[in-house]
Amino acid sequence: MAQSVGSAAHVSKVTLNRPSRQRRLYPYVLLAPVLLIMAAVLLYPWIISFLLSFQSYTPLRPIPARFVGLENYVRIFSDPAFWSSLQNTAILVIATVTIQFLAGFGLALLLNSITVGRGFLLTMFLLPLMVTPSVVGLSWKMLLHNEWGIFNWVLTNVGMPRVGWLSDPNWTLFTIILVDVWQHMPFGALILLAGLQAIPEEQLEAARVDGATGLQTFWHIVLPFLMPLILITLLFRVIFALRTFDIIYSLFRSGGPANAGMVIGVYLYEQLRLTWRLGFASAISYVLLILTMALAFGFIVRWYRDAFED
Fold first, then answer.
1. Which residues pair with 56 in a beta bridge?
2. Cα–Cα distance between 230 and 306 in angstroms, integer?
3. Is 66 exposed, middle or buried (0-12, 13-18, 19+ CB in 10 A)?
4. pLDDT tens digits, 139-171
5. Count of CB atoms within 10 A of residue 300's CB?
6. Closest by alpha carbon to 269, among 121, 87, 100, 85?
7. Contact between 179 and 171 (Cβ < 8 Å)
């Protein structure tokens, strides 16, 4: 009798567990089509490009792909144009990310202190972020035109000489930085404004009651509270700044005069457009990927360290 009761209980347990297992597998079944599509769209090209980076392959020539090992990577690091593009990329990333963060933080503080018309002002400031980079580049190309651009028109009307924004190599990087900052500065402002509005008012009120100054409140309450958002903002801006291409190509159709604005993204495109060496271009893309991962790793480690300490 006891054995039959035990067997019945065991059968009931198995019966009860079966639906729960099905429920656990159900989300994966629903996600399977999406995962397959992502694997076909993302994973497969990554694998193919990674394999191509170790091969010599030009589709315009009737020569099959040939394994060359690390020859493509050696050729990259022995090319002076690569080191020049890497230097331009470093200047662009440091300048744009720094200016965008500081200006965006200041704009977020300003909008947070405004109560009337904040929504309208925020919408106006976010308009550049909604425009595609290619359109931004073409619009600024007209504004910065050497002969009939509005910038040089203003300079000549105040008695100053014209500036070769698009023709002088000394102004090329400055022009790219100016346009990039104008478009992407609202990104950081939007994220930091959301963080400022999420700070508990009780903490700010307690600091005022304790006699803390505005600077002390900002340094000991506001800044620590915003630190995760600051790291996220910097992380995304560094990643996207490393991949800058659309704005530069819309402005100059190349790396600019004397290649003064050639960054790694433009260097990759030019190498592919001029030579069609897919193996060499794939190796450049993986150098850019490794550089992006190395820079992002520092932000991610700091982010998790702060979260663990908290």
1. 66
2. 12
3. exposed
4. 999 999 888 889 999 999 998 899 989 989 999
5. 12
6. 85
7. no
Domain ranges of the chain: 71-309
**CA dihedral for 219, 224, 230, 231, sign (positive or negative):** positive
Identity of the residue numbered 211? G
Q: Judge contact between 235 and 185, C-beta under 8 A.
A: no
Please classify residue 58 by burial: count the beta carbons closer than 10 Å to its beta carbon, then call 0-12 exposed, 13-18 middle and 19+ buried.
middle
Is the dihedral angle over the CA atoms 220, 226, 231, 235 positive or is it negative?
A: negative
Burial class, 121, CB count within 10 angstroms (exposed 0-12 / middle 13-18 / buried 19+): middle
Q: Residue 244 corresponds to which amino acid? A: T
Element (H, E) at 75: helix 71-77
| 65 neighbors 52 (Cβ within 8 angstroms) | yes
Distance of CA 219 to the CA centre of its chain: 27
DSSP, collapsed to helix, strand or coil, labels residue 55 as strand
Measured between alpha carbons, how far is 51 from 32 in angstroms, rounded to an integer? 26
Place of tokens 């980076």: 53
Dump pLDDT digits (tens) for 87-114. Answer: 999 999 999 999 999 999 999 999 888 8
- What are φ and ψ of residue 69, in 5° steps? 65, -130
Whole-prediction pTM: 0.83
Task: Quote the CA–CA distance of 261 and 169 in Å, as a whole number.
Answer: 8
Question: Domain 71-309 sits in which CATH superfamily?
Answer: MetI-like (1.10.3720.10)
State how far the Cα of 288 lies from the Cα of 301, in Å rounded to an integer.
20
Question: Do the Cβ atoms of 238 and 291 come closer than 8 Å?
Answer: no
Q: What whole-number distance in Å separates Cα of residue 280 and Cα of residue 34? A: 32
Give 118-124 contacts, CB < 8 A, sequence gap 24+. 122/190, 122/193
Q: Which residues pair with 55 in a beta bridge?
A: 67
